[in-house]
Amino acid sequence: MADPALTLEDVRFRWPGRASFGLSVPGFHMKQGESVLLLGESGSGKSTLLSLICGIVTAERGRVAVGGTDLSTLRAGARDRFRANRIGVIFQQFNLLPYASVSDNILLPLRFAPERRKRAAPDEAATLCSALGLPKGITGATAGRLSVGQQQRVAVARALIGQPQLIVADEPTSALDAATQDTFLGLLFDRIAATGASLLMVSHDERLGARFDRVVRLSDIAQTERMAA
Amino acid sequence: MILRLAFGSLLARALTVGMTILAIALSVALFLGVEKVRTGARASFADTISGTDLIVGARSGSVQLLLYSVFRIGNATNNVTWESYQDIAAHPEVDWIVPISLGDSHRQFRVMGTTQAFFEHYKYRGGRSLVVGQGHGLDDLYDAVIGAEVAATLGYEIGDPIVVSHGLASFTDHDDQPFRVAGIIERTGTPVDRTVIVSLEAIEAIHVDWQSGAQTGRTTPVERIREMDLTPSAITAALVGVKSRLQIFGLQRAINEYPEEPLLAVLPGVALQELWQIVGVAETALIGVSAMVVVTALLGMMAMIFSSLNERRREMAIWRAMGARPATIIGLLVLEAALMAAIGAILGLALLYAGLFVAQPLVDSAFGLWLPIDPPTARELSVLAGVIGAAAIASLLPALRAYRLSLADGMMVRI
After folding, report:
1. Is the distance from CB of A82 to CB of A66 less than 8 angstroms?
2. String of b and e for B65-97 (b: at least 16 CB within 10 Å)?
3. Which residue of A lies nearest to B12 if distances are taken between CA atoms?
4. Is B405 on the interface with A (CB under 8 A)?
5. What gap in Å lies between CA A45 and CA A59, rounded to an integer?
6. B263 - beta bridge partners?
7. Is residue B284 over pLDDT 90?
8. What is the ipTM of this complex?
9. Would the pTM of this model clear 0.80, i.e. be above it?
10. What is the CATH number of domain A32-58+74-217?
11. Is B15 near chain A, with CB under 8 Å?
């Protein structure tokens, strides 16, 4: 059986600093190809959890494994490359480098990920753009000039290029209106189904849950702690 | 791709980046301009006299001899007798010799008595000869040829009368024997511009009624003076050219050891070097000030990068999320700084050449300073490389801060 897409076991993390914010996750798992919606209000530790999963910060204790690789066993540089190779990230908004072209934005993760670069087809950026319903010839446009909806779709294309196994999305629909949200999610799920990637999306919006394999409340899997030192 | 993105990022902040680049460009242009003026001034200075192998005068110091004979600053302590002059002229090594007689003045300008040979043999700026632009040379006893600055300052034209004063800054005029402006020399950028040149005989003629520096009270009519033998009894200095450069030192030694009279012969180049060492302190100060301007511009750039960091935290988070290492973030900021400095340096160079192109004729005619338009020298190129390198180093500080911010922010910056 394939390695699970994501495993968190007995994880404990605290941001450095005086008024520190800590997070502990006793156990959370995602199967390969599974889509999970993680529900949580803002300030509930969503961002911290995503930073942990992406290996941008490391846990004090416990195991964070993506596709069977324990992130804590990797050194900082290797962790950065692992992230570039295996994980596609979509932010809430302001996903793109506004001064760069759409194609440069989409190809950016490949710059840091040699394996993923090999997996990517030469014209994959353009293919993804048209699959995501973006107008033809948009790849040459400057990212900052696009509408928010278009920018989010470009961000999806960037997350998907080179077929990373895990897509992490941080409230990607919150900046979109209801109609656009639906189209956006439809396109995202189509693409993910096509590549077989797992999707972990964080949101505060329960209505999105219908499309996902599983809906998890953050408060059920993680405890946050705030302490004034 | 990184280079393209760095470039794009700079373009996106065109206004602040543009101002920073402009500051760097101006400072670089200033620095290189000062450097040009400095080397130009030095070359002009060294070019004040060329083609002359030895300057001969009464024994004093070499700088002093150079100052009064060439720059017309200060006074000779003693004269050279006409006999000594003729003895030197009779040396077989001597190709030509030009006597100079100083001591009188016209307004604020020195009057120099010499012969027509001065116009043939006095060379400046790598062998250029004096050009009498208007009028002619010294034909008549009372002809005066004036330098361009004399003509410009006093508004003289050909045919205007000139009265020579006795001594320097004196109230006694040789008004019984007025001169006539016979020619005006084109601007040279040398002390000749500030000199009134008359014949050696004329200097003798106006002093016929003088003895030991005082007027005797007699007034000899001009007609009689013209018939007199006006061979001088002494001159102030002489410019000497030798037949072969190999003979310079032999002749110098012979003159310095001349038994009849204490004389001094100096090589103009050596004396100019000595003099420049005294004047050269100012150039060091000038270089220092313009270097500080470059440093200020780089500090401005550093401040600009610092203040841009906050609004670029989001951008840094994107880079990090895409898999960029912290080192890449640092590299990106350093690259941006180096790009700005490189563009600034190239722009500065362009400004310099544009400025030189416009200013060259103006500076030449106003100050007699020739600023050559040459391709950048190795020294100038190394200055430019130094500016770019310094910019990269200066940007390390904000880059390290960006690195720390990106570590502390993690992946999600809320803005």
Report:
1. yes
2. bbbbbbbbeeebeebbbeebbebbeebebbebb
3. A99
4. no
5. 14
6. B58
7. no
8. 0.86
9. no
10. 3.40.50.300
11. no
